[in-house]
Amino acid sequence: MFLKNSRYHGLPTVTAKDRAGTEVAAVKLRLLPIPAGDPVTVRTHDQLDTLSEQRYADATRYWHIADANSELEAASLLQPTGRPITIPRS
Fold it and tell me: Is residue 53 within 8 Å of residue 6, measured between CB atoms?
């Protein structure tokens, strides 16, 4: 279902029906531990990939920031400007 280098590769899946009644496969939700992290205040024009690049020297690790916060949609973390988010230390 996913490429071998995907963070979703090998995770358990579940089957569900979409609005049209078609069966679809989805990754089962994960329970995540609360990581050690630092609070950061969102500034105008912040992006998760650039925050990730600044912290980890790897823009592709933006999902670590998303997982450390409670928003279901990663882009929601950056709104509104001035809100605090957690950026994991590792």
Answer: no
